[in-house]
Amino acid sequence: MASVEITKPRTHLTSEKLVELEGVRQIYHKSDSPDLVALDDVALSIGEGEIVGLLGRSGSGKSTLLRIVSGLIAPTTGTVLWRGLPVTGPCEGVAMVFQSFALFPWLSVLENVELGLEALGVPAGERRRRAIDAIDLIGLDGFESAYPKELSGGMRQRVGFARALVVHPRLMLMDEPFSALDVLTAETLRTDLIDLWIEGRLPIRSILMVTHNIEEAVLMCDRILIFSSNPGRVAAEIKVDLVHPRNRLDPAFRQLVDDIYARMTQRAPKEKMEKHAASGFAGVGIAMALPRLSTNRLAGLMEALALPPYDGRADLPDLTSTLQMEAGELFSILETLQLMRFAELEEGDVKLTEAGQHFAGAEVDARKRLFAEHLLAYVPLAALIRRVLDERPSHRAPFTRFSEELEDYMSEENAEHTVRAVISWGRYAELFGYDEEMRQFNLENPI
Could you point out which of 92, 131, 300, 446 has its C-alpha 20 to 30 Å from the C-alpha of 435? Predict the structure, then answer.
């Protein structure tokens, strides 16, 4: 094993604060639409010697916050301090590992890892020595001359870690670094990273990581910050007092996972539920941002829930493990089923409604009719599209008729995704047709 800078043992936190955020707000201004608030009144701190996880659903602003911490973007308002000093640009001593590997395909492993040191002006000999040390540390000894296309996904992500570690950062930021990997590869890489961390062999002081995976957060982190969505806020902070290495089968581990699922599916007050069509979606009425999910996935999950061993009700941690799905991915499906009144989410459990049970046991035509009824009743955009098509003599309307209206409430990208989601659901339910080439809705296949 090559020599590396040894950091202090991981048994105790120090009093030094590496990062401090107070009152951070991030707003994206749009010239002809209401402003989009991505983060609102976020406060957090990161001390030396800890791994902190940002856990939340898509759209909660976690990745935006990571870039604010790194100094890559400045918040609209609020205070960001790096080691006690205001952040005015990219922070020296902070490195990032991305979800997508972000390697240069024309550079070898060694050259990819050396790149950050070259940008810092480190002499060639020192660059090579430190790069080889980092490659050896992360388990890629012998692959220095290989190119990214010759490596597996797990090996490419190891290169990403080596590239971050080679600059000996005080803080390493990780943006869902394991989510693009298969389950076994991700587990191996997580375990290796934690082993190096608890042995004090990583040349870093702290880690801040974004994840959608609840078990991953409990497995790795000393503290977990749960983010709410739209806008992103710190909804809860959970300390993880379990010693490393952590055992997923430990009752204390399972209880903590269950508690986090319960927090993330806690039913809102009745008045809030009445105001918002479904917890977890941005906006109300047609302003709800909807996830692009196929009806096959929605139907498949209802079928799975209706069958033994669940018989209509499931514990979310157990369901996530059985289906081998990320919690964020599962939440998107379940919240869509909740929006359409096919399922109910509460305190870490999901339960099929009477309509959901009926759908799971029905034949194809009956399923489509039931889906159409619920789509019109509970998804305002679908009802608007159908109403506009009914009222127009031509029974046609362009995509932009609806996407541009949504852009008054959300980003152009979210508007595109939301309309696309309703196109998929409406076609399945035979509420309307859609001509992709002309980007036009029609009533050629009405119910």
Answer: 300
